[in-house]
Write a structure and sequence with these properties.
The protein is α/β, with parallel strands linked by helices. Helices cover 16% and strands 27% of the residues. It has a single domain, classed as Rossmann fold (3-Layer(aba) Sandwich). 26% of the residues are buried.
Length: 73
């Protein structure tokens, strides 16, 4: 199962992309600082394949698993 990293995943478009990827059976790591996005956009996602990290991607962070695809919103 592919793992996808979605930056800006709590925004309007990013949250819909997360939904689509999960529906296709992908594991999703969503990273967002929620300055322009909203936790309400992803609050409905209750999937064990979904992981949310509240972080600003302009600062370094580590992801402890391999990522197959990156979607930068």
């Amino acid at each position: 199962m592919p793992t996808c990293l979605v930056t800006g995943g709590a925004g309007f478009l990013g949250s819909h992309l997360c939904d689509h990827l999960l529906g296709a059976g992908h594991r999703v790591i969503c990273v967002d600082n929620v300055e322009t996005g909203s936790l309400r956009n992803i609050a409905h996602i209750r999937d064990e394949l979904f992981r949310f990290l509240q972080h600003d991607i302009t600062s370094h962070f580590d992801i402890d698993e391999p990522v197959d695809f990156v979607y930068h919103m």
